[in-house]
């Protein structure tokens, strides 16, 4: 299948692009696994909890070099800012988080993901979430379906809120300036259970594969969710900001992804932004 951008430039065969993306994701994963045998340089960014390492940066650079060699017109919006300044999603844009869950990478040596979304003229076409230590890949091609390794992911079935397991960071259930935490406490009392994995991409991978029924956060960036939202669409998961609108892919935004029934109930009855 050939894809055209709005300008009518013939850009590529989607299957070929998919194969290329999978190949470089697995190669990057191999490089990250090997990095445990040498020293990690850990720095903080916006806060003491916001970590970055030399491996995050090296991995992003690895992707940029590979992608630019594949097609120099593709642009890269990466967390570590090593691609170009992307101010629109025109053309082919790769949204990349080289390591999602850097704290897990540094502290636990597991539960961190490479996640990539490939957008063409703003439409998500190919999505990937790769669990580096397990070697597990969640992926999707727009309109063709989603897979967990070689197995197709099934459409999500309705779940009652009281039987749902949701992903949420404990921060949002303590008093904070962004959301009414009392309402979230009542949500937590209502559901069957909660989990917090420390990687937004991992929580999204669990929602699309039915291991979680929803995940919410008050502040995520495009690279945290770009790949995941493309997979979500293929399994019928709903992904919006906390106003129920499209996530802002050129900035930061609130985020709620879930099984459609659970997403609707949470949004309607338990979210009050401050
Ligand atoms: C972070 C993780 C974390 C989420 C943070 C993200 P990073 O990404 O996804 O689970 O709560 O908001 O920034 O910094 O490890 O790539
Ligand atoms: Ca991230
Ligand atoms: Ca990251």
Automatic annotation (TrEMBL):
An example Gene Ontology molecular-function term: inositol monophosphate 1-phosphatase activity
Signal peptide start and end residues: none
Keyword Hydrolase annotated: yes
Keywords from the UniProt entry: Hydrolase, Magnesium, Metal-binding
PROSITE patterns for the chain: IMP_1 (PS00629)
Annotated binding of Mg(2+), by residue: 79, 97, 99-100, 224
Cofactor needs: Mg(2+)
Biological processes, Gene Ontology terms: inositol metabolic process; signal transduction
SUPFAM superfamilies, per database record: Carbohydrate phosphatase
Transmembrane segments: none
Source domain of life: Bacteria
InterPro entries tied to this protein: Inositol_monoP_metal-BS, Inositol_monophosphatase-like
PANTHER family assigned: INOSITOL MONOPHOSPHATASE, INOSITOL-1-MONOPHOSPHATASE-RELATED
Protein's name in the database: Inositol-1-monophosphatase
Organism of this sequence: Metalysinibacillus saudimassiliensis
């Amino acid at each position: 299948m050939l894809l055209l951008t709005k300008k009518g430039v013939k850009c590529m065969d989607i299957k070929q692009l998919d194969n290329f993306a999978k190949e470089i994701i697995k190669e990057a994963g191999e490089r990250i696994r090997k990095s445990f045998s040498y020293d990690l340089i850990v720095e903080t960014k916006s806060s003491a909890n916001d970590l970055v390492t030399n491996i995050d940066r090296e991995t992003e650079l690895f992707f940029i070099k590979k992608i630019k060699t594949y097609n120099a017109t593709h642009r890269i919006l990466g967390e570590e800012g090593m691609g170009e300044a992307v101010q629109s999603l025109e053309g082919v844009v790769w949204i990349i988080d080289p390591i999602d869950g850097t704290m897990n990478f540094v502290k636990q040596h597991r539960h961190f993901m490479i996640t990539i979304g490939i957008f063409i003229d703003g439409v998500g076409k190919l999505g990937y979430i790769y669990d580096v230590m397990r070697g597990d890949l969640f992926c999707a091609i727009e309109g063709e379906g989603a897979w967990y390794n070689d197995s197709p992911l099934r459409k999500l079935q309705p779940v009652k809120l009281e039987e749902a397991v949701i992903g949420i960071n404990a921060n949002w259930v303590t008093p904070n300036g962004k959301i009414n935490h009392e309402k979230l406490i009542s949500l937590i009392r209502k559901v069957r259970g909660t989990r917090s994995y420390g990687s937004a991409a991992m929580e999204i991978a669990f929602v699309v594969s039915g291991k979680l029924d929803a995940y919410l956060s008050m502040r995520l960036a495009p690279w945290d969710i770009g790949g995941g939202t493309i997979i979500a669409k293929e399994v019928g998961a709903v992904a919006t900001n906390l106003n129920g609108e499209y996530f802002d892919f050129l900035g930061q935004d609130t985020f709620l992804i879930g099984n459609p029934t659970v997403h609707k109930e949470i949004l309607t009855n338990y979210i009050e932004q401050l």
